[in-house]
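Possible regression after last week's pipeline update?

I re-ran a chain I had predicted before the update to compare outputs. Posting the input and the new output here so someone can diff against the archived version. Not blocking, just want to make sure nothing changed silently.
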Amino acid sequence: MKLTAFAAAAAAFMVFGPVEALAGRDLDQIRSRGTLRCGVQGPSNPGFGVPDSQGRWQGFNVEICRAVAITIFNDANRVEFVPVTSQSRFPALAAGEVDILSNNSTWTLTRDSNVNRFNFPAIVFYDGQSVMVPRRLNVTSARQLNGATVCVQPGTTTELNLNDFFRQHNLRFTPVVISDLDELRRAYDSGRCDVFTNDFAALAAQRTLLTRPADHVILPERISKEPLGPVIRQGDEELTNIVAWTVFALIEAEELGINMANVEQIAGSSTNPLVRRFLGVEGNMGESISAARADYARQIIRQFGNYGEIYNRHLGPQTPLGLDRGQNNIWTQGGLLYAPPAR
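New output (post-update):
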């Protein structure tokens, strides 16, 4: 009886283990260049990505890119950060000007299909679109905004969601459409519009830059669901795997209770086979995704910590954004973050 190609491959896997992955087109180019080009929303996205006084980029999305660089190169510094706008990000990715977007991009059908041909390897932040208004308006619900002027960026899912919400609830509004996020925020801050709409976390970031942040409130409704994550071009499964399993490593580490402070102690003492495989102490899970090292997850955690540590460092309650974990907690703590098993 002849084996089919699939059955033969499956049999080979069972007998010999995983076949060594061949680097894809984009991963080959990244390695040949020696740097990962990461598109980040700049320059004013506090908490997620901003250059510090020395010009070094800092933030939640920035550290996701640095973690990917560890998986590829075992070097968090081999990243070139390229500021992109909401309008330029996808053309820049499609043209090869950046290798990956890490800038609060929403996973949608048309972006992740044959229309635009992008891949979203994993979700790093669950969000939803909200609206911000001055406290003096005494507005408590987005449904009270009939006739309002609304500051919104054009050509975004934000603009589409805004139109859908007002249409669904038979409300009228006048859009103030401005592409540049800084200019849009200044327009709202100066009173050119009654409402500023964006994803909740993005509004929290922009509120910190207003003249009087405490004078503005983000209303409780979420008028859409916005699963945010890194984006790459379709056509390179190896790069897709690297990005996905880098994100999953951050989530899995938090679930396992492994953090920046204890990762080396656990790697040296744990007898748990799941933990030992995850940290590269035994086996070689890194080889399965073309990582630079078997212990890529251990190296990431040693330098940046787990998902919760990165979140709390840049977005959490003790930061200017002050965001509770909520749905961005791990699944064992009531959130939505869930990593496939590393086996």
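Follow-up from reviewer: compared with the archived run. The chain has two domains: 12-126+227-247+314-330, 129-224. Marking as no regression found.
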